[in-house]
Design a protein that fits this description.
This protein is an alpha/beta fold and about 900 residues long. Helices cover about 45% and strands about 15% of the residues.
């Protein structure tokens, strides 16, 4: 319970830096974020999308994590046994690339170190960056259960990965074979389809003439990659293309290498495109690979794994693929084979990790058969037993992808990652797959075994994340039985295919349950102009920089309430400032309240007595806000939740109720004063609870100063809707009072009469009930309208010389004699009219000037027209006001 000294010690201004470190340490020491404190409570689980241990967290992470923290804090307060499980991802290619880059700066490579020593370096990197990420989580105020923190390469997850690999292999769903895959020549590893980013590139289309070996003519083909022609093993035409019927079965002489290749017929060819003839390079194009299989064509690789031309490339051996392209084109020109070149804009795949141009490459890899896994996921989704997508439209996108999914290449030519649990017998060639290390070949008994050098795609292990982190494959694990399946996954819409879909496939296959009930998909954080943030553009925002400048609460409130499910949001510094100002408003209002709650204890709070209109009204509004905030949070509508809280706190509580409360707090009626103190303490306590998931630090700091019970607002009960607090009558009365006060203040502003000057006010109620309501609250009208004389009567006659306003249920009159000197006001308005006439004339001349209109940009002309409309509108209003005053 807060004592008087605590109430008195609340600083004049809120200092985020001091509060944040103090309260995070307090929360951690108290173990308030640990799940399992109440075994009787219903569990609620979120597993964090594990950030890569490649560097510092960015503003997109701040959005993702803040939304999760809001959900988990609210659920914890609502009485759930809430688990938010933290962890990080080893991020195979990305992390290995970063470590290799640091080694290059030292003039060494991973090969100089060897596998074991290199992996020691990567583990050191992982420890450094995992600690940095943990520090950033703390700075953001995230309520994670660190006692359950996991890493995708830790021992428990490694056993889960091996278990899944072995079981899929035994079912025939994992296989090894030669196939065209996406190859990253920079990282020297295979990539899955979704690790390839397609960018529009200005290239060229090269038209080549291949001669028939019988001397009867030639066939023209076109290619964007002439260097791959060295691996051509056929030219294909459509079987029904009459132009080439007589050529099918003949052979061509492949220029430069002078190899005979056949002309084949295949329905893959589009006879309407180009010449209707296509060069077939089975080792360097996925479509050509399929054609090659159908026609049993040779597969000739002309490049090595680094993207350089190999022995099969003849005179071009050792050249980089792009250098080879230039040399091949020059030689084809010289031989007269290149008929012409045309500019050609096309989509070119780039490695998401290294940025290198991806090479379609024939390679021996490990694959997962996706169709059987996808069928189960599709069936679950269409039968209503699948995942609930928020927003719903992403379900269609997800289904479209899994219905057309291709086999997944899961092997990566890296050293950092889960090494494939397969041992190749060097004597008989048998592949031994097992969850434990194999020492003897299952086929021949030989001990001469070599473990597969490849590691698994990062997404293979992170696809098991919702259940592997909770103890699976030990299905008797306490955490697995209690916290799985999880309740909600919060992630960006950009990794539905990378991660979300893989988790659903594997969870259904290995746990017979969906891994999470809801999947909340948020957008990307873009800059103020809507551009994607990137290092190259220099428009990224460091969340720690924002926190250092404005505090964690300001960042959290701004980024969460600016978000709508599934939509990108724009980061604007002015919005962070507005959030900081909101925090300051909360602080100042709370500080005022606490100055008037000295000596008041939690036991003194009593809201059951005879309360005034404003008291009943604010309790009603708190009750409404509680109901609506809870409903909106459950629907993941964070922006709408933020708006509700902002309106209640800024408008209802600070601008109206606290101002009304001053009358009784400063008054002589001790009973009324104690009632107001009770309401103020009660409302502030509940308000801090409602705002806590968004602004954990300032809400804890204020709550600890308030009369309260319990150790922390983190575990304080979430406010609930209470029918007994409904007060429709008080709402009607307050609406009448607020409308009256606003109308009088608007009239004052219109005629430039400051609040310091008292005015006469006449109010004519529409009926007896309104009359009673106004009289019951007369002190508020006198105080906030600043009246020298207040007349409320059903019999008022409208004065001839007065400003008037209509509110629901009453007419308001302010006699002019008490407001302004009419002659003086007319003189002032005439001066203003003269100024506006000049401005209108100036803009009219500019718009009539042909030279200006011809040369000025459209935007400038539009601005001048807007000025013209604005000045004309103001002039009309001043004219009308002068006429009104002259008629008085």
């Amino acid at each position: 319970m807060a004592d008087n000294q605590e109430q008195l010690s609340m600083p004049t201004t809120y200092d985020p830096k001091a509060a944040e470190q103090k309260w995070y340490d307090y929360w951690m020491k108290g173990g308030y974020f640990q799940a399992g404190r109440n075994k009787d409570a219903e569990p609620f689980t979120i597993v964090i999308p594990p950030p890569n241990v490649t560097g510092m967290l960015h503003i997109g992470h701040a959005l993702d994590f803040t939304l999760q923290d809001i959900i988990i804090r609210a659920k914890r307060m609502q009485g759930y046994d809430a688990l938010w499980l933290p962890g990080t991802d080893h991020a195979g290619i990305a992390t290995q690339s970063r470590v290799e880059a640091t080694l290059r700066e030292e003039g060494i490579s991973r090969y100089d170190l060897g596998r074991e020593k290199f992996l020691e370096k990567v583990w050191d990197w992982k420890d450094t960056y995992a600690n940095r990420i943990r520090s950033q989580w703390e700075k953001m105020g995230l309520s994670l259960d660190y006692s359950r923190e996991r890493f995708t390469l830790d021992e428990g997850l490694s056993s889960a990965v091996r278990e899944v690999f072995v079981k899929l292999y035994e079912k025939g769903l994992i296989y090894r074979g030669k196939y065209i895959i996406n190859w990253d020549p920079a990282a020297r590893t295979a990539l899955s389809d979704i690790e390839v980013e397609y960018k529009e590139v200005q290239g060229a289309l090269y038209h080549l003439k291949y001669p028939l070996t019988d001397g009867s003519g030639s066939i023209t083909v076109a290619t964007t990659r002439p260097e791959t022609m060295l691996g051509d093993t056929a030219v294909a035409v459509h079987p029904k293309d009459e132009r080439y019927q007589h050529m099918i079965g003949k052979t061509l002489l492949l220029p430069i290498v002078n190899r005979e290749i056949p002309i084949i017929a295949d329905e893959y060819v589009d006879k309407e495109f180009g010449s209707g003839a296509v060069k077939i390079t089975p080792a360097h194009d996925p479509n050509d690979f399929e054609v090659g299989l159908r026609h049993e064509l040779p597969q000739i690789l002309v490049m090595d794994e680094s993207g350089k031309m190999n022995d099969q490339a003849g005179p071009y051996k050792g050249l980089d693929r792009f250098e080879a392209r230039k040399k091949v084109v020059a030689d084809l020109k010289e031989q007269g084979v290149l008929t012409h070149i045309e500019e050609h804009v096309h989509q070119v795949g780039h490695s998401e990790r290294s940025g290198a141009v991806v090479e379609p490459y024939l390679s021996t890899q490990w694959f997962v058969k996706m169709k059987p896994l996808a069928e189960r996921a599709i069936e679950a989704q269409k039968s209503g037993k699948g995942v609930n997508f928020v927003p719903e439209r992403f379900e269609k996108i997800y289904l479209n992808w899994i219905e057309n999914v291709r086999d997944w290449v899961i092997s990566r030519q890296l050293w950092w990652g889960h090494r494939i649990p397969a041992w190749h017998c060097q004597d008989c060639g048998h592949i031994n797959v097992a969850s434990e290390d194999v020492t003897a070949c299952n086929s021949c008994g030989s001990h001469n075994l070599q473990q597969d050098n490849d590691v698994l795609d990062t997404w293979f292990s992170s696809g098991l994340w919702p259940f592997s982190t909770l103890g699976w494959p030990d299905t008797d694990s306490e955490d697995f039985k209690r916290y799985y399946p999880t309740n909600v996954l919060v992630t960006g819409y950009d990794i539905i295919y990378f991660w979300a879909a893989r988790m659903i496939f594997t969870a259904l296959e290995f746990t017979d349950q969906i891994p999470f009930k809801d999947i909340l998909l948020h957008g990307l954080v873009r800059d103020a102009d809507g551009k994607k943030m990137s290092k190259s553009l220099g428009n990224g925002v460091d969340p720690l920089e924002v926190i250092d400048q404005y505090g964690a609460d300001a960042l959290r409130y701004m980024i969460s309430t600016s978000s709508t499910p599934g939509q990108d949001l724009r980061f604007r510094w002015e919005k962070v400032e507005q959030a900081r100002n909101f925090a300051n408003k909360i602080w100042n209002a709370s500080r005022f309240a606490l100055m008037n709650l000295q000596g008041f204890t939690h036991a003194d709070i009593d809201i059951t007595g005879e309360l005034g209109t404003a008291d009943r009204w604010i309790l009603h509004r708190l009750n409404e806000t509680t109901r609506d905030v809870t409903r909106m949070l459950d629907a993941y509508e964070f922006g709408e939740t933020g708006r509700l809280l902002y309106n209640f706190i800024w408008d209802d509580l600070c601008d109206w109720y606290i101002e009304f409360a001053k009358l009784s707090l400063y008054g002589q009626d001790e009973v009324q004063k104690k009632q107001t103190q009770s309401v103020l303490a009660y409302v502030l306590d509940r308000t801090m609870r409602l705002i806590h998931p968004f602004m954990p630090y300032i809400s804890e700091e204020i709550w600890q100063h308030l009369p309260h019970e319990g150790d922390t607002v983190t575990l304080a009960a979430w406010p609930t809707y209470d029918e007994k607090l409904e007060a429709a009558g008080a709402v009607a009365e307050m609406n009448l009072l607020m409308d009256t006060i606003r109308s009088v203040r608007n009239i004052r502003a219109e005629v430039n009469v400051p609040m310091s000057k008292k005015v006469e006010l006449m109010v004519k109620p529409a009926d007896e009930n309104t009359y009673n309501n106004l009289n019951r609250n007369i002190e508020f009208i006198e105080r906030f309208c600043g009246t020298s004389k207040l007349d409320i009567s059903l019999a008022i006659e409208a004065p001839s010389k007065a400003m008037s306003a209509m509110v629901t249920g009453a007419e308001l009159y302010l006699p002019l004699s008490g407001l302004i000197d009419i002659e003086q006001e007319i003189a002032r308005l005439n001066k203003e009219l003269e100024h506006l006439n000049k401005e209108v004339e100036r803009v009219e001349k500019k718009l009539a000037n042909e030279g200006f209109m011809a040369k000025a940009p459209e935007k400038v002309v539009a601005e001048e027209r807007a000025k013209m409309n604005d000045y004309s509108d103001k002039r009309d209003k001043v004219k009308a006001r002068i006429q009104e005053l002259q008629e008085v």
